[in-house]
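Why run this: before we spend reagent on co-expression, it is cheaper to look at a predicted model of the complex and decide which construct boundaries make sense. The entries below are exactly what would go into the expression plan.
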Amino acid sequence: MSDVTVAEFSGWGRHPVVTGRRRRAENLARITDGAVLTRGLGRSYGDASLPPPGDHVVAVTTLADRVLAFDSDAGVVRAEAGLSLADLNRLFWPRGWRPPSSPGTQSVTLGGMVAADVHGKSHHSEGCFGEHVRSLRIRVADGRILDVSDDVEPELFRATLGGLGLTGHVLEVELRLRPAASPWIQAESERFGDLDSLIDALQGASAQWPYTVAWADLSSRGKSRGRGILERGRAADPSTAPVSPPVPKRTFSVPLVCPVLSGATVRSLNMVRYWGRSKITRGIVHPESFFYPLDVVGRFNRLYGRRGFTQYQAVLPPRSGRAGCVKVFDILERMRATPLLCVLKDFRAEGKGMISFPMKGLSMAIDLPIRDHTQSVVNALNDFVAGEGGRVYLAKDALTRAEHFRAMEPRLDDWLRVRRTWDPDLALKSALSVRLFGDPA
Amino acid sequence: MKVVFLGATQGMGRALARLMAERGDELFLLGRRLDTLEGQAADLRIRGASTEVGVAVCDLEHPDGFGAALDAATATLGRFDAVVVTAGLFGTQEALEQDADLRHRVLTVDFTNTIEFCEHARVRLLAMGGGVLCVFSSVAGDRARKPVILYGAAKAGLSYYLDGLDVTYRSRGLRTVAVKPGFVRTAMTEGLKEPPFAADPPAAAAATLKAIDGGRPVAYVPSIWRVVMLAVKCLPRWVRRRVDF
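The model came back. Tokens follow.
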């Protein structure tokens, strides 16, 4: 029986593309044996889930998705790394539980959420995903399978949360869920005419609302650049929410690669998004519509065309503030980069993940289609962000240079030391670790 | 529905068992390894199976244990409504041509021993007044094609047998469901070139469950493969000699 498949790997941004070998089966302990990296649904944007170029084996976890235990009193669930967030939500929303933290898509696996230590609309109230992970079963480079937690090998545990799969293969995840009065969401969205009032409103909402995010329109110019919509939400009151649990939404898929997202279409989409509803909208909405609005369009990454796209996501510390945000927009405008999506989020302080992305400050995420000059745009943005004491999110990144990342990340040496302790020969590696940490390919 | 399930720990079998668990069916799992069975039982229980999910070891390579395994299921479930067999072995044509031992195992498991297991199940289901016997064959058994001659031969024999069960015993309450999956993305097909109309296990499982509930004697999953195989069966021999699928 042929065990591995030659496969092309790419992330959600479809750039870069690396050829390697894929091993996919139910038995994680078997498929991770000898693999350089473990990958879930491949939803990180850049090269975090890609093997280095060459003949390397990547274990793919999507068939290893058993729920192994559930404590219905404490809300603690233990599952294999390949369980998708969509499956987790579908199973536990109706029972009155929700994940405390989730990214903007449910097409991610538990293992992937650990590796990227994902954050979402709840970051200001709940922190990263990793804050709610009680323990991990991982396979370290020498082949041993260990259970790690705050009490057992805490350093390895912390290095693995957000460790991009480079400290060990994540096999099982034990997660504490939050009780939810209702899975349905009481949501409000409100329009703001300029960046200042949008950011004010975003920060102001965080005290009352457990879920917040802002979308900013960067295709308008002048004073209205950065105008946008604030989305805020909380679990709906069960007395007013639908009694029935939310049924998973139907989705449709973009059937082929077609580059429709560029200059003019982006401007019009942003116009429609901004003006297409009243100043303030309130209502009870489906949790998928609130948390994962873009999941309705499957494979929408194909709309960015053949060359793919990257997402530039950076966080700037409070002292940099909104002036820093304006500066980032200036750089984009000066370099004629055409961002489609710009999402703003205020973060609380960093958590226990040793090199996890979030820290206190304002985060901005900007989709950039790959063009000839995209590398120089990212370089210019990184120059600025590093100088401000900010940093970039590696789960979205494909283009940051090693020297920029080092300048942004004072915690890097500490994390590299832990990685070396458990993997002195660098048996675990990815295209990203070759690019940023100088691993030999 | 009370179901005895051989092969619920992987691929389409796992997906089908989950659908059954989520609608509250009562399941008893048979399989090769106790630890794997217990992990799967926990998964199905949490996903909604209406009672504890019982398990017993049963290996298609060891027919001596078939009777005892089904007796263990009867001891737990009492009367059961369905027996589902998704287990089997696979090898690529190349591997089966080169490896005599693997060839012997695949042919034995997928033909002789699967039928032997079905005979045990048939006798018990008929004694209980009838029920569903759902067995996974393959489109590979419909027509000889270059990449699946040996595997296909075993599945062709199995399909022939299931067809015979249907015509013989349906009047006595035994509803045979022969499932013929096309290309489904499982660990079994990992490493093979993916043809058009490939499906994921949950979609194949949903189609299978419909066939079980409707008592359809033959179910292509996904259903497009009925058309595909009809076309393949119409191909003249000289074309089949030339093409490589």
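The longest strand of chain B covers residues 174-181. The beta strands of chain B are 2-6, 26-31, 54-57, 82-85, 131-136, 174-181, 218-221. Bring this page to Monday's planning discussion.
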